[in-house]
Amino acid sequence: MEGPLAPGLRRNMLTICAMTATVMQALDTTIANVALPYMQGSLSASQDQINWVLTSYIVAAAIMTAPMGWIANRFGRKRVFVVCAAGFTVASVLCGLAQDITQMVLFRLLQGVFGAALVPLAQAVMLDSYTLQERARAMAIWGMGVMLGPIMGPTLGAWLTESYSWHWVFFVNLPFGAFTVLGLMFFLDETKADRTLKFDWMGFAALAVAIGSLQLALDRGEQMDWFESPEIIAEFIVAAIGFYFFFAHSFTTEKPFVPFALFKDRNFRTGCVFMLVMGLVLFSTMALASPYLQNVAGYPVETAGKLLASRGVGTFFAMMIVGRLMRHVEARSLIIFGLVLAGGSLYQMSLWTEETVIREFLIVNAIQGFGFGFVFVPLSTVSFLTLSSTLRTEGASILTLLRNVASSIGISLVIAQLTQGSRRTYAILSEHINPFNHALQMPDVSGLVNLSTDAGRALADRIVAMQAQVIAFAHDYQLIAVFILCALPLTLMIGSTKALLGKSAPAPEHAVME
Predict the structure, then answer these.
(1) Element housing 27 (H / E)
(2) Tens of pLDDT along 347-400?
(3) How far apart are CA 184 and CA 164, in angstroms?
(4) CB atoms near residue 34 (< 10 Å)
């Protein structure tokens, strides 16, 4: 693409194609989760085997995200985008047709390999299709797919599984994938392919081993009891060695696998830092929300999904507003506002109990989604504000990789903390459940919880277990809220944006780098 496109059918179609590609990939990170129990029986798989349906996709996508910038530059962005969108669609259909667990894991690996390109290439296409002044609005449109996909995934997955079968969790990608492929073929211009580019196999191999091992450790750590397992220890050691070799090689070779010219740009560096924060906070919060609504509040999965949709509604409205505000308000001010809203909502969530009413869930989730929307759009815009157009595809790949790795780390941390916190709290509370507890001797209580009977002891155990879970969730929400507060001073790294985004003409290319 030679430059920004004029408003019209072509730009609108490319925007829609970028959105459908983004939504497909974002949905598939979470949509299959609720279908796992149904798939396990249908495919005759053990619990450990069925978990590879998720692990294989995550690991493959993580490994293949980093080289997408080089691949697009070497073979042409359009060619790569079309091939990956078509490959992802075909792999999705094959997943729906899988007859055993081996086929399913293989097809999910293919899905991850092809799906890795969809988000960074969609973002790069959006950035190139809009002028500098329109970029905030473009990132708001694109960001809806990134943010709403994981939120709506469990809801859509539950509905498809309950109403039809688990196969439709994958078949749903077919019409959107076909539309995306055709739209890209007709409306997207090809970029100039640089056939002289040489691939840094050593750098890629080291990074692939590092990221793959790290993702395996993070994904399997909870079920393998973390550092009690030799497998998890070995995976972390391999990851550390891989990262060491990657950085040692990259700093000593002439043309490293990751172009370090990216990090000479101050805004891109800042975007990387905040993308790590967003990955940790956004996805870890989402990972806690569904278990809370199902296990503590007692809602079925479909109802829980509908309640979580309020977060998506909040994000949608925020993104409609923030794109326009960026012309008049500094990006750092909007990010601070969004972080404060998200942190406040997390504090409010730490006060939830099993008696919390639906209205409270809806309002707090909507506010949280609104806050995240005010962070994500300015962040996506700032990251590429002064980055050279020749580095946008690589930059989009790196940001996507950082977000995915950070989300895996965040999810693993909060789930591990939740599990350990529940056990510790249960042990502490259980010490007070004995015949000498004055509260249990009160007539109103002893009539319900009679420790001299099996039924009374079972009821006491359920009450203690529930309270232990409530407290553990509260501690997790408080931990994430504190992390957000600690991230607030980092907004000082963001330079002025209003002057650039408020101009009527694009910034000259020579002003792109620091």
Answers:
(1) helix 9-28
(2) 999 988 888 888 888 999 899 989 988 888 888 888 888 888 788 888 888 888
(3) 31
(4) 25
Measured at the alpha carbon of residue 54, what is the angle toward residues 364 and 313, in degrees to the nearest 5? Answer: 25
Low-confidence residues in the chain, pLDDT < 50: 504-514
Report CA torsion sign: 484, 487, 489, 493. Answer: negative
Looking at residue 508, its pLDDT comes to 38
Question: Which pLDDT value is given to residue 106?
Answer: 92
Q: Using CA atoms, how far apart are residues 165 and 157, in angstroms rounded to an integer?
A: 10
What is each CA distance from 440 to 425, 443, 453, 459, in whole angstroms?
Answer: 19, 8, 13, 12
For 230-260, letters b (16+ CB in 10 Å) and e give: eebeebbebbeebbebbbebbeeeeebbbbe
| Ramachandran angles phi, psi of 482, nearest 5° | -65, -40
Q: Are 480 and 417 in contact, with CB atoms under 8 Å apart?
A: no
Tokens in use for 204?
């890629």
Q: In whole angstroms, what is the distance from residue 159 CA to residue 486 CA?
A: 38
CA distances from residue 479 to 112, 207, 307, 471, 491 in whole angstroms, order as listed: 31, 30, 23, 12, 20
Q: Which amino acid is at 79?
A: R
In this structure, the dihedral spanned by the alpha carbons of residues 386, 388, 389 and 392, taken in order and rounded to 10 degrees, is -80
Provide the pLDDT for residue 511.
36
Give pLDDT, residue 69: 84
CA distance 97 to 76: 32
Planar angle of CA 490, 493, 497, nearest 5 degrees? 125
The runs of H, that is alpha helices, within 67-134 are 68-75, 77-97, 101-115, 118-129
CA–CA–CA angle 274, 150, 471 (5° rounding): 80
* Predicted pLDDT at 505: 40
Nearest residue to 148 via CA among 376, 378, 309, 348:
309
H-assigned helices in 431-488:
443-446, 454-487
Predicted confidence at residue 159, as pLDDT, reads: 80
- Give the model's pLDDT for residue 163: 81
DSSP 221: T
Q: Is 366 exposed, middle or buried (0-12, 13-18, 19+ CB in 10 A)?
A: buried
What SS3 class is residue 39? helix
pLDDT of residue 244: 92
Rounded CA separation 85/79 (Å) = 10
Tell me, what's the pLDDT at 514? 34
* CA–CA dist 248, 209 (Å, integer): 15
CA separation for the pair 50, 206 (Å, rounded): 28
Q: Is 188 left (phi over 0), alpha (psi -120 to 50) or beta?
A: beta
**Helices 118-129 and 9-28, axial angle in degrees (round to 10):** 160
Q: What distance in Å separates the CA atoms of residue 24 and residue 38, rounded to the nearest whole number?
A: 22
Q: What is the pLDDT of residues 174-215, one digit of tens each?
A: 999 999 999 999 888 888 877 777 888 888 889 889 988 888
